[in-house]
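**User:**
If convenient, please work through this fold.
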Amino acid sequence: MKQMKRIGTALAIAPMLLILAACGGGGSGSGAAKPTVTPAATAAETNPAYVKAQEMFETNRCISCHGVNLEGRAGPKTNLQKVGSTFSKEQIANQIKNGGGGMPGYKSKLSDEEVSLLTDWLSSKK
């Protein structure tokens, strides 16, 4: 009985050992496949200011019209996925502050610093 238990344990461990052995070493000329490298996160995804701007975008109900992925939910004018290649920073800041075209203004709800953070983040969308 003990021997059967050991064989069962060995059979369970063997595949894990094979997987671990396949991951090891493999210097040049060994014929081992190179590991797949996933690209690093973009600067925009890791920039703390952009992270904060995205959080502000979500908490100020911007997503109700512009969508979670900036795809626009209230018509084509609300799509912001490439807003940085269409409008200057000044135009984006003006739109956030003063609104227009169906968008409410946020100058009484957001500080100048918050508008600046959102403007920088949105202008990076190209």
Notes: Residues 44-123 form a domain with the Cytochrome Bc1 Complex; Chain D, domain 2 fold (CATH 1.10.760.10). Confidence is low (pLDDT under 50) at residues 14-41.
